[in-house]
Amino acid sequence: MSEALLAPSAAPARDTTPLLDIRGLKVHFKTDDGMVRAVDGVDITANRAETVCVVGESGCGKTVTAKTVLKLIDMPPGRIVAGEIRFEGRDLVPLPPAEMRKIRAKQIGFVFQEPMTSLNPVYTVGQQIAETVRQHEGLSRRAALDRAAEMLRLVNIPNPQRRVQDYPHQFSGGMRQRVMIAMALSCNPKLLIADEPTTALDVTIQAQILDLLDEMKQRLGMAVLLITHAMGVVAEVAQRVVVMYAGKVVEEATVEALFATPRHPYTQGLIRSIPRIDRAASVHARLEAIPGTVPSLLNPPVGCRFAARCRHAMPDCVAAEPPLREVAPGHKVACILYPEHRP
Amino acid sequence: MTNYVVRRLLIAIPSLLGISVILFTVLALAPGDPFEELATNPAIPPDVRAALRASLGLDDPVWTRYFSWLTAMLRGDWGYSFVSRVNVDQLILARLPTTLAIIGASQVLALAIALPVGVMAATRPYSVFDQVANTLAFIGFSLPTFFTGLLLILLFSITLDWLPFVYRADLTSTGWTWWGEQIRQSIMPVAVLGLFQGAAWTRFVRSAVLDVIRLDHVTTARAKGLPEGSVTLRHVVRNALIPVVTLVALQMPTVFGGAIVTEQIFRVPGIGSLLISAILANDTPVIMAVTFVFAGLVIFFNLLADVIYGWLDPRISYS
Ligand SMILES: Nc1ncnc2c1ncn2[C@@H]1O[C@H](COP(=O)(O)OP(=O)(O)OP(=O)(O)O)[C@@H](O)[C@H]1O
Ligand code: SF4
Ligand SMILES: [Mg+2]
After folding, report:
1. Helix (H), strand (E) at residue A40
2. Do residues A92 and A21 touch, judged by C-beta distance below 8 A?
3. Who among A97, A105, A167 is closest to B223 (CB)?
4. CB-ligand 2 contact for A201 (6 Å cutoff)
5. Mind telling me which residue stretches traverse the membrane in this protein (chain B) (predicted)?
6. Residue range(s) defining the domain that contains residue B129
7. Residue A91 in contact with residue B199, Cβ under 8 Å?
8. What Rg, from alpha-carbon coordinates, does chain A have?
């Protein structure tokens, strides 16, 4: 009620509130071995028409975070233990299923990691895109199929009118990921979440898909939350970067700041591990991988979770968990090496 | 597609021939003779008996008899029953509709139980509903049909006297009363067969649905904002039907086996009970013909399953 009354006057100010604002999110899974703290205090914001990359090693909770935004994790065993997921100012966490369904695809599109298995093999791609459109826009079957063909054309699939009648197995991996993107964008969402959309693809196809995402963003103007474990991808597409480690955000900055002055020792390690052409040409081409392994999310260590692998670790690091603090304008780090920035 | 069906039918011919050879040999080697009774009957003179045997070709070698049977069969002459002297094709045609009606009704019942229960159980794994359904399915699947059949007769016919325990093909009533009596006498055989198959299929459906439910495309369907009902029906059950169809087709011989036993228990005058009585009387032409009909039905249902399979799964191509 009050929201409806506020809406018109708040409209100009609304553009400054982030489109997506995840605060203190904790998602835990109950398993036979105990509670897996897959996401344990994550803050991510994405503004309108902005590309935010979430980066981190395998198992650090990227997929769980992304799926939780649309409540696509299995509950049970999963549970949102704490936190808020504000989309256009409205918290999605307490939203009932019926309301949640109106957000999915319509407001927030989702592209999954595995194009080979993410489409239903028994329906044509046209039917699958049309189904989404019909659900949210009440179009007729005919009109929805036309939209499907239009979307295929948009994502540069040749012969869209004919291809809508093909089944997923008649497409290559890269083409299927284009179909997934077409489907995710078919209702013109304000935010597109892409969970490692290129990881399962050939290297040559990866670049094409990233280019396509960029092109779509230019044309349709949606925000993109891109999840990846490749720093190279981050450098190419991101405006802002969120670095995750063992279920927590350890650093957040603009892409320029992150690559120019990475603060967190983990981020520094990640950046050092990018293969670089110039270095490769001169000295021995060696990737500097971060030594050690990710701690278990079952019983995460007290204090900084990176301590076991950090070359700057000191007793204070394991005494208490370092909070995520702003150390320079717009640059947040969770590490005790950096004093809080006070404007 | 038509090509595929024709090819499958052609492949079926050698299997049918093989079945007939094995069956014929086994019957020829088996002890017992349709003329045993006549042989001990002093009223029939030995020369008449010998002439009868010769006219039926009973003294020829097995392979001669087999080929004369086969050529007659191919000409459409199924011979006649040694026992009742009625043409075998007439015997079978008179009894086949009853068998098909009982089997058909029981399979509809089985599917009507297995589909909803299996899907509900799989979508709520380890819930109370799932555990009760699982337990009942296990019990239903473990109890042999002759046991449940006798149990039902004991309860509903003898103790409660609600249902007739002998199935009659010669109901004299007409119109609605006929239908009423028909249904009353069909309840128990249909229930026995249907519940048994329903229990088996519930387990199939449950495990097929559980396999599909964790696939990525189901999460995609949810991410599209579809209601849970559409996700389950269109993206889970629809895909789970593919393996279920195969399993159901593979079960057809079991279904016919169950039908034979059930017909025997309830004295249903179908081809199953015809087969049993023919076996007891060494009535070779009837045994051969009925077995052939069952083999033909099994082949037909397998073919049907293949066709449905291809229709359900666009990845299959019949080339
Ligand atoms: N349904 C579940 N039940 C139990 N644990 C789960 C479940 N889903 C995810 N997890 C756990 O949550 C943790 C984070 O997983 P997640 O898939 O988010 O990692 P990720 O960062 O996406 O890794 P990757 O780069 O490999 O995709 C993992 O340790 C995983 O075992
Ligand atoms: S808090 Fe300590 S252990 Fe953790 S990253 Fe910073 S210096 Fe390393
Ligand atoms: Mg992942």
Report:
1. strand A34-46
2. no
3. A105
4. no
5. 9-30, 100-123, 135-158, 186-205, 240-266, 286-312
6. 89-312
7. no
8. 21
- ipTM given for this complex: 0.86
Residue of B217, B224, B234 best to disrupt the A interface, most CBs of A under 10 A:
B224
Choose from A120, A123, A134, A135 for mutation: most chain B CBs within 10 A.
A120
Residue B302: burial class (beta carbons within 10 Å; 0-12, 13-18, 19+): middle
Q: Residue B16: inside a domain, yes or no?
A: no
Cα–Cα distance for residue pair B187/B163, rounded to 1 Å: 8
Q: Which of A117, A122, A135 sits opposite B225 (nearest CB)?
A: A135
- Residue B1 domain-assigned? no
- Which of B249, B300, B298, B292 has the alpha carbon at shortest distance from B271? B292
Rounded CA-CA distance A167/A164 in Å is: 8
For residue B214, the chain A residue with the least C-alpha distance is: A74
Instruction: Label residue B258 exposed, middle or buried (CB < 10 Å: 0-12, 13-18, 19+).
Output: buried
Dist. CA B180 → ligand 1 center (Å): 60
Shared-domain flag, residues B71 and B96: no
Query: B104 and B222 share a domain?
Result: yes
Question: What digits encode the pLDDT tens for the residues A144-201?
Answer: 999 999 999 988 899 999 999 999 999 988 899 999 999 999 999 999 999 998 888 8
Same domain, B73 and B197: no
Judge if B52 and B197 occupy the same domain: no
Whether residue B129 sits in one domain with residue B64: no
| SS3 at position B223 | helix
| Residue A53, strand partner residues | A226, A241
- Quote the CA–CA distance of A133 and A193 in Å, as a whole number: 18
Measured between alpha carbons, how far is A193 from A104 in angstroms, rounded to an integer? 11
Instruction: Provide the residue type at B24 as one letter.
Output: F
Per-residue pLDDT tens digits of chain B, which is 319 residues long: 778 778 878 888 888 888 888 888 887 777 666 666 555 666 777 777 777 777 666 677 778 888 888 888 788 787 777 777 788 888 888 888 888 888 899 999 999 999 999 999 998 888 899 999 989 989 988 888 888 888 888 888 788 878 777 777 777 777 788 788 778 888 888 998 899 999 999 999 999 999 999 899 999 999 999 999 999 999 999 999 999 988 888 888 888 888 888 888 888 888 888 888 888 888 888 888 888 888 888 888 888 888 888 888 888 876 6
- Residues in Cβ contact with A13 at an 8 Å cutoff, skipping those fewer than 6 apart: none
Distance CA B232, CA A280 (A): 52
Q: Is residue B169 part of a domain?
A: yes
Same domain, B47 and B181: no
Q: Determine whether the shortest distance from the Cβ of A318 to ligand 2 is under 6 A.
A: no
Do B168 and B260 belong together in one domain? Answer: yes
Q: Which residues contact B282 (CB under 8 A, 6 or more apart)?
A: B27, B30, B32, B33, B34, B36, B82
Strand order in the sheet with A51-55: A108-111, A191-195, A223-228, A51-55, A240-245, A248-254, A331-333, A325-328
Residues of B whose CB is below 8 A from A112: 216, 219-220, 223
Q: In what order do the strands lie in the sheet with A78-87?
A: A34-46, A20-31, A78-87, A90-91
Are the C-beta atoms of A229 and A196 separated by less than 8 Å? yes
Q: Which residues of B touch A180 (CB under 8 A)?
A: 220
Assign B135 to helix, strand or coil. helix
